[in-house]
Design a protein that fits this description.
The structure is a single chain. The chain is α/β, with parallel strands linked by helices. It folds into 2 domains: 137 residues, 3-Layer(aba) Sandwich (Rossmann fold), CATH 3.40.50; 44 residues, 434 Repressor (Amino-terminal Domain) (Orthogonal Bundle), CATH 1.10.260. Helices cover 40% and strands 12% of the residues. It contains 8 helices and 6 strands, in the order βααααβαβαβαββα. The chain has a 6-stranded parallel β-sheet with strand order 3-2-1-4-5-6, with helices on both faces. The protein is globular and about 50 Å long. Its EC number is 3.-.-.-. Pfam families: HAD_2 (PF13419). This is HAD family hydrolase. It is an enzyme of class 3 (hydrolase).
Length: 198
């Protein structure tokens, strides 16, 4: 088991990790005219420029709606407060936009834990599973990778963490597992918070 008490740089996925899952990805794909199970951002990026603009505008409309509906995941405020108390640096890396990430953080009462420049969306860094966003945050913080953590609920979060050589934590509410990309697996944020005291 990885000891988390020495980790000082925490990067979180947002939707489904710090928030309760609200996105209906099947509906989003349907609205965008995409095939089931394709990666939405990759599929949009493969379209001609004019089609990309139209699809991204519709995606923005949908994401604005979902961001406003965001509800805090169980234990999120307790976890972030504990990390803040421990003087940790906290960042967000999301495939959402910066604007909607801030809207979601406001909706769940967690905006005050994150500096705006430490909230990276798909326009600030290549989308996960790319490690670019993690590396940007670590460079901003002048942080050693061995003291950094990537926390997420999906395979792309964990793959990004692996690619950046930081500790990966899978918040697994849906009983999905990617053991090759996971250092620690927890069922909720209360469980993760408890590990900070171990």
């Amino acid at each position: 088991m990885v000891n988390l008490t020495h980790k000082r740089y925490w990067i979180f996925d947002l939707d489904g990790t710090l928030t309760k899952p609200v996105h209906d990805f099947a509906y989003i794909r349907h609205e965008l005219g995409l095939q089931p199970d394709v990666d939405i951002l990759s599929a949009i990026a493969a379209q001609p420029a004019e089609e990309q603009r139209t699809m991204l505008a519709r995606l923005d409309e949908l994401e604005r709606y979902y961001a406003a509906q965001a509800e805090p995941a169980e234990g999120v405020v307790e976890l972030l407060a504990k990390l803040h108390e421990n003087e940790c640096c906290l960042g967000i890396l999301t495939r959402n936009t910066h604007e909607f990430a801030l809207l979601s953080l406001e909706a769940i009462g967690a905006a005050n834990f994150f500096a705006r420049q430490d909230v990276l969306g798909r326009d600030e860094a290549a989308p996960k599973p790319s490690a670019e966003g993690i590396n940007i945050l670590l460079n901003q913080w002048v942080a050693p990778k061995e003291k950094a953590v990537m926390v997420g609920d999906f395979h792309f979060d964990l793959l990004a963490g692996r690619a950046a050589s930081v500790t990966t934590i899978h918040v697994d509410r849906a009983e999905r597992s990617w053991p090759d990309a996971t250092d620690i697996r927890v069922s909720n944020l209360f469980e993760l918070c408890a590990q900070l005291n171990d």
